[in-house]
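A reminder from the course coordinator: this example appears on the midterm review sheet, so study it carefully.

Given structure:
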């Protein structure tokens, strides 16, 4: 025990001496004198009182509570025991701060420190045992809490399995039971809202598309009567408007459907994106050639994504349709798929202004014809639907800066 206390005192002297030497080298002699006086003004609670002596080699005393320099060689930073008064001794060490300046640091070892150290050891051992017991009880409680929270997480992650979950306690025992009950109620409410939304949109689609389809059939019958050229032209334009309205309605419903299922991944299945992109590019190659465009694609094999294959195909088709609409004859459309997955659709057309790169993903936003200054035909829903499908798959569709033309990139959201 005494050996440990003596070693602790020697270490305290070394640390104290090094700190004062650093103060001298960085702030100078005046600051060192102030620091020594500050340390002498505070007596440590453990009884190991410090003592200092800062003096010149010519015997001029600068600071400290020691009156005379002991038999310690400052040139070699000698250490040793020195007498403090008539009854005490201290571990001391000297050093030379400058050619004409010496510093001595000493720390007493309190005779009562052995008893204090013993008491301290008892408390430390007892505290360690107490901490161990508390830790074991805490781990048991944490494991139980973890199991209960895992049950809530399973319910939130797989809402379709809520009906098969064990019945929740009717009366909450604590906050966790209350959280579990509230979570179950929220899931049931959201499910009911989604079912009501789905039913409403299905009814809306049916109620609007059915009369439009009937109207289109009547126009077909009217055209079969072979009216004059002017009437035929008007009827044909009316049919085009009907098809445009039906297409716009379907796009709006698809956008609403995708946004309503942002957090629902239960219906997603592995999709071979490499095969999907290759097949669509091959399908669009003829259309691009007819429009006087070159369609090039580079697809990394084996890229798989959990998703809805029909929706992902719609996303890429909308991007390709957009490129075919705006790239002038003689231009090139490039499609690239790499692991990540990262899908890029780029072209060398008129491009998109920086101020419009976010706006184009809003509904009913259409880009102007750069050459004619007129808007292209369309409802402005293609990119809005593509963005909604991307969000449905926890991905981001964005328009990035490009030296020429437009560049669209589909990638996973960063965590």
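Designed residues:
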């Amino acid at each position: 025990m005494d050996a440990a206390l003596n070693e602790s005192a020697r270490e305290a002297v070394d640390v104290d001496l090094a700190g004062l030497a650093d103060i001298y080298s960085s702030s100078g002699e005046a600051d060192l004198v102030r620091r020594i006086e500050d340390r002498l003004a505070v007596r440590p609670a453990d009884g190991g009182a410090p003592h200092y002596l800062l003096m010149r080699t010519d015997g001029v005393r600068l600071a400290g509570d020691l009156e005379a320099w002991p038999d310690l060689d400052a040139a070699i930073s000698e250490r040793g025991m020195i007498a403090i008064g008539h009854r005490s001794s201290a571990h001391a060490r000297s050093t030379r701060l400058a050619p004409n300046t010496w510093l001595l640091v000493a720390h007493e070892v309190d005779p009562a420190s052995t008893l204090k150290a013993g008491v301290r050891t008892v408390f430390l051992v007892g505290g360690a045992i107490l901490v161990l017991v508390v830790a074991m009880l805490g781990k048991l409680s944490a494991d139980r809490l973890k199991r209960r929270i895992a049950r809530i997480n399973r319910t939130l992650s797989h809402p379709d399995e809520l009906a098969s979950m064990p019945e929740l306690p009717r009366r909450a025992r604590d906050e966790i039971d209350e959280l579990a009950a509230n979570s179950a109620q929220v899931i049931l409410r959201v499910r009911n809202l989604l079912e009501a939304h789905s039913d409403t949109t299905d009814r809306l689609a049916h109620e609007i598309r059915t009369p439009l389809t009937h109207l289109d059939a009547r126009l077909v019958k009217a055209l079969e009567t072979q009216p004059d050229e002017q009437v035929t032209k008007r009827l044909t334009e009316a049919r085009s408007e009907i098809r445009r309205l039906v297409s716009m309605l379907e796009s709006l419903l698809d956008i609403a459907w995708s946004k309503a299922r942002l957090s629902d991944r239960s219906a997603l299945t592995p999709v071979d994106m490499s095969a999907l992109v290759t097949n669509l590019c091959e399908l669009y190659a003829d259309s691009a050639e007819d429009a006087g465009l070159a369609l090039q694609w580079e697809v990394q094999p084996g890229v798989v994504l959990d998703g809805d294959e029909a929706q992902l195909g719609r996303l890429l088709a909308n991007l390709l349709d957009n490129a075919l609409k705006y790239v002038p004859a003689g231009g090139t459309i490039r499609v690239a798929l790499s692991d990540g997955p990262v899908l890029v659709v780029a072209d060398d057309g008129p491009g998109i202004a920086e101020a419009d790169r976010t706006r184009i993903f809003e509904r009913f936003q259409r880009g102007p014809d750069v050459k004619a200054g007129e808007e292209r035909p369309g409802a402005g829903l293609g990119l809005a639907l593509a963005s909604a499908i991307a969000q449905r798959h926890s991905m981001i569709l964005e328009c990035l800066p490009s030296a020429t033309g437009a560049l669209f990139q589909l990638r996973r959201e960063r965590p």
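The two ends are 54 Å apart (CA to CA). Helices lie at 2-27, 29-41, 113-157, 175-224, 229-260, 273-290, 309-326, 382-392.
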